[in-house]
Amino acid sequence: MTSLTRREFIKQTGVASTTLVAPFYLTNLSSNKKMEKNNTHFDVIIVGGSYSGLAAGMALGRALRKVLIIDSGKPCNRQTPHSHNFITQDGKTPQAIAELAKLQVQQYPTVSFFEGLAIQGAKTKDGFEIQTKSGKIFQAKQLIFASGIKDIFPDIEGFAQCWGISILHCPYCHGYEVRNKPTGILGNGELGFEFARFITNWTKDVTLYTNGPSTLTADQTTKLKNLNIKIEEAHIKRFIHEKGHLKHIQFKGRDTTAISVIYAKVPFVQHCGIPETLGCVLNEDGFLQVDPKQQTSVEGVYACGDNTTRMRTVANAVSMGTTAGMMSNKAFVLSNF
User: Fold this and answer.
1) What is the DSSP secondary structure assignment for residue 157, as one 8-state letter?
2) Any idea which fold 6-151+267-334 has?
3) Domain 159-264 - what CATH class?
4) How far apart are CA 124 and CA 204, in angstroms?
5) Were 293 and a residue from 21, 125, 191, 327 both cysteine, which residue would form a disulfide, CB within 3.0 to 4.6 Å?
6) Reduced to 3 states, what is the DSSP secondary structure of residue 59?
C-alpha cells in the first residue's frame, strides 16, 4: 500500500481543514479522568493540551489509540478576554471554549491527561520517552508537539500587562471590535511599513510608533504619508493602562499621547525545546518544520499549532491538530501492511 499525499487523502475521505481566525486561551483544568497508576506506555504522547493538542487527542481517541496529553496549563495568550472569528464560538470566552473542548476529549476512554511540564525527551529502541518536571517518565511510539511558542516582549513598562487585551497581534482576531478607533502600530522598517498599511482596512486613523529613529526608506515614508499614516519616532517610556486596557503612551522626555489600541508583532522562541533535542529542524522563521501531514523532520514526531506557523488562530490550530492525529494514526495502520 502506497502512502497518499494530504491532498489525495482529503479528496478520498472528504475531510477538509478549516482555517478561521480567533484568539486562544486554556487554563490549567483539572482532569475528570485520573490516569491509571503505573500507566506509562502509550501509542502517542501529545505535549501541549491547548486546542491543537486536544484536537489531535480527539482524532486519536476516535481511532482507538492509547494517548497521553501532557499539559502545563500556561498558554501564551492566556490574558485574551474574548474569542472571535471562530465559527459557532464567536464572542465566547476562550476559557469556556477550552473547558468544553477538554470535556469532550475526556469522553474517549483511551485518552489520558497528565498535568505537568515536559522537560526532556529521548529516542528509544521502541520509540520515544518524555520526562516531566516532577520526574515522571512516559514512553510512546510516536510524539505530537502542540507546545506553542513563547513571545518575547519589548522592555517597555506596561507592554506585557496589555498584551492580548489592548496591545494586539492579529486584526482578524480583534480588529472588528476596535474598528475606526485611533490605532497605533509598534514597529519599524519593513515590518512596521507593511503592518501599518494593512491595518488601514480596519481604521484610517493610524500612527506608526517606531520607538526610536525611523528605519523606513524614503519611498516607504512617502507611501505611508500618502495614506495619512502618521509616523512618531520618539522613544516610548511606558504604556499607561488600567488592568491591561491601554490609556496613554508616555514618551521619554515628552508628554503622553492618548490611545486605546496598538498592534505589535513580537519575536518568539519555541516554548518547548524537546523537538530540537530530538533532531527536529526549525525553519528560517523559527517554527518547527513540518510537511502537509504535520510530520517533522524526525520520523514518528509530529507538530501542530502555533509552534509551526504564523497563523496563530484557534481554527487553524484545531485543523492542524486534527491532521496530526489522523496522520499519526494512519502511520500506525500502514505499519501493519
Assistant:
1) B
2) FAD/NAD(P)-binding domain (3.50.50)
3) alpha beta
4) 57
5) 327
6) helix
DSSP state for residue 310 in the 8-state scheme: S
Asked if 6 and 85 count as a contact pair (C-beta separation under 8 A), the reply is: no
Angle at 59 between CA 55 and CA 64, to 5 degrees: 140
Taking a C-beta distance cutoff of 8 angstroms, is the pair 88, 172 a contact?
no
Q: Write down the pTM of the prediction.
A: 0.84
DSSP state at residue 253? T
Residue 199 in grid coordinates: 491595518
Nearest Cα to Cα of residue 77 among 58, 98, 57, 56 = 98
The label of the residue with cell 484610517 reads 204
Q: Is 60 exceeded by the pLDDT of residue 163? A: yes
Of the candidates 310, 317, 314, the one whose C-alpha atom is nearest the C-alpha of residue 284 is: 310
Whole-angstrom distance, CA of residue 169 vs CA of residue 268: 13
pLDDT tens, 170-228?
Answer: 999 889 999 999 999 999 999 999 999 999 999 999 999 999 999 999 999 999 999 99
Q: Residue 32 carries which DSSP code?
A: S
**Average pLDDT score over the chain:** 88
* Within this chain, domains 6-151+267-334 and 159-264 share the same CATH topology: yes
For 1-30, what is the mean pLDDT?
38
3-state secondary structure at position 181:
coil
Which three three-digit cell numbers place residue 53? 493538542
Residue with cell 502555533: 306
Domain extents in the chain: 6-151+267-334, 159-264
